[in-house]
Amino acid sequence: MSLDALLPSPVRFLEGRLGRLRAPESLARYEAYFEERGKAISEAVDRAGTPKLLMFDRFGTRIDEVVFPPAYHELVRRAYEAGVVFRAVEEGDLAASYQIGYVTSFYDAGLYCPHTVSLSTAIPLAKYGSAELRAKYLGKLLKRDATVWQGATWMTEAKGGSDLGAFVETVARPDGERWLLTGEKYFTSNVGAELAIAAARPEGAPPGVRGLELFLVPRRRDDGALNFRVRRLKEKIGTRSVPTGEVELDGSEAYLLGARGQGVYLVLEALNVSRVCNSIGAVALTQRALHEAWSFAEGRVAFGRPVAEQPLFARQARERHETLLDAFALAWEAVTLLSEVWRETPRYSDRYHLFRLVAHLSKYWTAEVAVQSAKWAMEAHGGAGILSDYPVERLFREAIILGIWEGTPHRQVLDGMEVVEKKRVHVPLLDGIGARGGNAIALAMARAEVDDWLTLPAEKKEAESERVFSRLAATVARELRRATL
In degrees, to the nearest 5, what angle opens at C-alpha 272 toward C-alphas 270 and 275? Predict the structure, then answer.
């Protein structure tokens, strides 16, 4: 059996699935960089573990500098130069941005995190920032050289992340044209970024998620002083290519994004951009896992012939490859829909709510596919699969985080089924796939199952939601691939 010859190359795989790419020469150069230099830097950064936080300079001045191996900054900068942010915001080409993210994640899924949160900072700034804020900050996020600024998204606090309405305790106090934030953010990815977006509750705002607003928080004040303090960096099982820390906000200067009362919508918009990134990263990691497993199996001889030629393994590989293609179809549908609706503002169109469902389906399902694919790649390697000397051990560490980033699986299920219940968007989703060539019987069965679920009493409806959601995700992924073909 011959497995897909495109597996070793993320660019060729993208070409095989999409045909014409947005910036093929740039993507080819980006991939070549990883093969020639970036892959080795990535491995060295991961093996070095959590970076060091240098809190003070030698004169005792607070600096809160994250100290990485010197080549790390070169590695992380390459995607910005290729256009992971500017192509989306400046050129309006989200597909080009996500293609860059796919290549990044094939080589280093954790590295895509700083690029993701930078994109999720730039988009709300571009859409909802005042003219003065855009003039002051947006161009810095869109630069194409070593002076580019990075972004970060800070929502989670110590009590939890999913229930933002209950657990965001950071308070915002008006101070002229700006706001002053006081509170603590517990899980702040890309903690060394020059700009962050953060959820906070203005003084006197109502409780719950409706009382939240979204603020832009610069790393430094206009006079050059630090605007917040980094308490410590987190020890994480994976994603060592992005520093994650705890941040203390103490009268930190911030700027409101959007109009008062829009905050929850802006927070969810940023999360949904990141969820699509998560999906793209998960599929790219899946491709890498299959490539590593297959290339090992071709060279590993057991019981007289290569493992790749043995019937059980060959069947598993074929099935995993089919799942990879399904996962890509689902993730790219999320990219396609987001490309249509990302400029919308509240109140959103029905098409935007359709995107929301696909984003939840994709984030949920592709993350689980990545975990199972990385696990299978470890099994294919036998004892070598659990050793940090070889790549699949790291792939597994990176994969298991994908389910948690930007909302746990439970959150995707509950939010996804909420939009089904309120907007009935499963109907245009399944009908649209059918019109493109999906299997009519499979799509009708999926619709009937969702419609039956909608008739259940509330408690049973929630209890049964993952079963229905999971099957819907698998059906949509499979039939999207058939429709694409």
Answer: 115
